[in-house]
Amino acid sequence: MAYQVLLPSKVFLLGIVLWLLASAYISSCHNNQVQKHFSLSSPEKSNIQEEKKEAVSEEELDSEDLNVFYPTNQWQTLQPGQAVPAGSHVRLNLQTGEREVKLPDGEKYQNNLKEQKKGQRLDLNTHGFTTQELKIALEKFKEGAGGAKEDKARQEEVRRRFRPIEDLKKDFEALNVVIESDLQIMVRLISQFNSSSTTLEEKIMALYDLEYYVHQMDNAQDLLSFGGLQVVISGLNSTENLVKEYSAFVLGAAFSSNPKVQVEAVEGGALQKLLVILATDHPVTVKKKVLFALSSLLRHFPYAQQQFLKLGGLQVLRSLVHEKGMEMLAVRVVTLLYDLVTEKMLVETAERGQDPPEEKVQQYRQVELMPGLQEQGWCGIVSGLLGLPEHDMREKVLRTLSALLTPCRDRYRQDILLSSTLQGLRDEYQELAALEQQDGEENGYFQEMLGTINGFIQELR
Ligand SMILES: *[C@@H]1O[C@H](CO)[C@@H](O)[C@H](O)[C@H]1NC(C)=O
Ligand SMILES: *[C@@H]1O[C@H](CO)[C@@H](O)[C@H](O)[C@H]1NC(C)=O
C-alpha cells in the first residue's frame, strides 16, 4: 500500500532531477563556467562514448546484471547487480556476504520520506529511487540531449523559456537541495570507501555507485587526478571478498577503451593483483568480475598483453579453466583469448602506411601470444570446450578454434575426439536447421551454426 501512496513523490523527485539536468545541459552550452560544475557529456565526446558503449556492452549484457528483483515481506538474497524497486530495504548480511532485500515496513518508510522532504540534501544515489532507475533515466536524458544540440533554434527557444542555472541553484538552495558535480561525487565516494570508519556495507555501496560514474571516459580519467584509481586498485588487496569483487567491477568499467587509465593501472600494479586473485582460492563471483577487469585491461593495449604473458597470465587462465566450479568462466576465458588473437592479427595484417601506425604494429609483434598458446596446450583446451551444451558457448568456441587454426592445425587433424565431436554437432545442427526451415525460416541461427561447423571441417582437411 505504501507504494501507491508514495509513488507520486518519487515521480516528483525524479522530475526535479531531470528538470535540473536538462537546465544544466542547456545552460552549459552557453556558459563554460557553469559547465565546470556539471560534467554532462559535451558534443565532441559523443564519438568516444559510442565506442565505450560498445566496449562495455559485454558486461552490460550479462544477464545477471539485467535482472530486476521483486522483494516480498521476508528478507531474500539479492544477486550482485540485481535492481530492486525503489524504497526496498537492502541490507548486507555480514555472515554470508550477501545482500538481502525486503519490502519496506510501510509506516517507517513514510516517515523517512517526510523527513527527506524537509531534508538537508537530495542525494541522487540513495533516496527515493534506485541507482538502477537513475542510470536509466540519465541514459535517456543524455540520448535526448544529443538530439537537442543539433537543433540550435529549438535550443535558443528553450533557453529563453527556462531560467539560468544560477537562478535555479538559488531556488534549490532555498529548498536545501545540493547538487554535486560528477567529480565531487567521485571524490566523496572514494573517501567514503577509503575511510577506516565506514562499514563494509557502506564501502560496497560506494563502489557500486562509483561504477556508474567511471563508465564515462572523462570521469574515469578524473579518477587519476586525485589518486582515486589507486585506492580502488588497493581494494583488490582487501581481506573481504566483496570488496575485491566490487573493486574489480569498478576497475573493469574504468579500463574499458580508456588508454590513459589502462596505462596508469598497469603501472600501479593492477595486473599482478588481478592475476593473484584468479590464481588463488576465491568464489566464482569474485573471479568473474576480476576476469572482466583483466579483459578490459588487456584489450587494445599491447603493452599490458606483453606484461600479462611475462607474468605467466596464460598459465593462470589455464588453471582457472580446469578449476572445479569455474566452468562458467571457461567460455569467458576463451572469448578473451579469441579477442586477443584476432586483435593482434587485424593489426599485423592491416596494409602498411594505413591505420594502425607502424609503432603500434611493432608493439603487437612483441606480444608472443601464439607460441605461448601452443606450448601450453590451449589447442586441446579450446577444442575440449566444444562439448559444452549451450549453443552460444559452442559458437564462441568454434570461432576461437578457427582463429587458432594456424598454430593448432596439425594437432586438430589428428584429434579423433575432436572429429567425432564435430560429426556429432554436424548431425545435431542438420536436424535443427531442417526444423528451422520447416518453420519457414531461411538462413536461421541453426543454419548458420551448421555452416560454421561445415566450414571448420573443410578448413581442417
Ligand atoms: C586513503 O587513505 C590513506 C590512509 O588513510 C590516505 O593516506 C590516502 O591519502 C587516502 N587516499 C585518498 C585518495 O583519499
Ligand atoms: C597486496 O597483495 C600483494 C599480494 O597479494 C602483496 O604483495 C602486497 O604487498 C599487498 N599490498 C598491500 C599494500 O597490502
TrEMBL record:
Which organism does this record belong to? Phascolarctos cinereus
Cite the record's note on assembly. Answer: Interacts with HSPA5.
> Which BP terms does GO give this entry?
protein transport
List the signal peptide residues: 1-29
GO CC terms for this protein?
endoplasmic reticulum lumen
| Isomerase found in the keyword field | no
Q: Which keywords does this Swiss-Prot/TrEMBL entry list?
A: Endoplasmic reticulum, Glycoprotein, Protein transport, Signal, Translocation, Transport
**Gene symbol of the encoding locus:** SIL1
Protein name listed in UniProt: Nucleotide exchange factor SIL1
Cell compartment(s), UniProt? Endoplasmic reticulum lumen
What are the residue boundaries of the Nucleotide exchange factor Fes1 domain, all occurrences included?
134-223
Name the domain of life.
Answer: Eukaryota
The record's comment on protein family reads: Belongs to the SIL1 family.
